[in-house]
Amino acid sequence: MTDTDLLRDRGLRVTAPRLAVLDALEGHAHLDADEVLGRVRTTLPGVSVQAVYDVLHALTGAGILRRIEPAGHPARYERRVGDNHHHVVCRGCGAVDDVDCVVGHAPCLVPSSTSGFAVEAAEVTFWGLCPACRQAG
Amino acid sequence: MTDTDLLRDRGLRVTAPRLAVLDALEGHAHLDADEVLGRVRTTLPGVSVQAVYDVLHALTGAGILRRIEPAGHPARYERRVGDNHHHVVCRGCGAVDDVDCVVGHAPCLVPSSTSGFAVEAAEVTFWGLCPACRQAG
DNA sequence: GTCGTCACTTGAATGATTCCAGAAAACATG
DNA sequence: CATGTTTTCTGGAATCATTCAAGTGACGAC
């Protein structure tokens, strides 16, 4: 399915900024809003900061994008949705990479006592050092 | 061990603001910086905002406090450290509660492929609705 | 094509957190 | 207990990602 069809399918209007954001995240996952803006402006120089934030919100709300918010770092976005994968975040530079869940259906992701909370989702974040930051010491 | 001994034990100086912060978090886990400030000022009215941030950083760095940063909410702090428990966060009001890991040693918390990252820790966050927000609809 | 709705632009505001310089207090020593 | 050094605390301003507000412009149903 083309990005155009994807947007129509979710009931979203097809606009140049939206296509540009999707294109920027194609092959470059885990970009933050500023990086997305930079990439979008290479093809659409006039796009405003808020347009990018609006688009990212709209696409996230429509389930086309997934938003990752590692503690202490700006939010990042990726196109890979719906497969319940997780992330490693580098303590040094904030780089993010994907981690697939080892076990098919995560057994420890069903909490024991939920204190009356209605739990909808579980999110796993691994923290460590990326290869580059390991070398840098 | 008293809080005074605890601070000395970690090589930290014993000051009134530090004791007050520890006291504020005793029995009131998951407070954010502003809430800690409010509680501290009931006993030490003159304490500054930055003093509280400095203290929270110092105690977190010394391993006395644990910092929780749920996406979209200010950071929260708790005294319970070193037992690898996790948290439920309310999508409505941001309330946080503790969740003990179901399985003794979490099986899915060892990532399969780590892309060269040196993984140090795994963090699990459950998202849902607290009892109060469930009733509010 | 026309029109209503939704998206985008410009500009300013917010809120948690941090930076800076100077004053004050805590620990180690004589 | 007096002194000096180091660390902490105060007060004010600054930062950064993100959001709000109001007006202009473009998509797409009819």
**End-to-end C-alpha gap of chain A:** 44 Å
Whole-number radius of gyration of chain A?
17 Å
Order of helices and strands of chain A: HHEHHEEEEEH
Percent of residues in helices of chain A comes to: 25-40%
CATH fold name of the largest domain in chain A: Arc Repressor Mutant, subunit A
Give the quaternary arrangement of the chains: homodimer
Q: Describe the strand arrangement of the main beta sheet of chain A, using strand numbers.
A: 1-3-2
> Which second-level CATH architecture of the largest domain in chain A applies?
Orthogonal Bundle
Q: What's the CATH C level of the largest domain in chain A?
A: Mainly Alpha
What structural category do the secondary elements of chain A indicate?
alpha+beta
Low-confidence stretches of chain A: none
Mean pLDDT of chain A: 90
Question: Going by CATH, what is the homologous superfamily of the largest domain in chain A?
Answer: Winged helix-like DNA-binding domain superfamily/Winged helix DNA-binding domain
Number of strands of chain A: 6
